[in-house]
Structure prediction request, 72 residues.
Amino acid sequence: MELTTGDKPGLLAETGNALLKQNVFIRMAKIVTVGERAEDVFYITDNHGNMLSAEQQEMLRKELVRAIDESQ
Prediction:
């Protein structure tokens, strides 16, 4: 999963909470901040180590957008 957005305090915590709510497991992450921009990559699976289905991906996308939008 790639996440590119404006950086701000608490962004990683909000992202982690969104992943937790969707029962997503982070296998590895690459966190990069370029100026005021966050360019993060997360290697994720479900709790059983499987790829997320299209439905799970869409639910996660909506949760991330909601979490990021609410805090701005």
In short: Strands lie at 2-6, 24-30, 33-34, 37-46. The chain has one domain: 2-70. DSSP finds two helices and four strands in the chain. The chain has a mean pLDDT of 94.
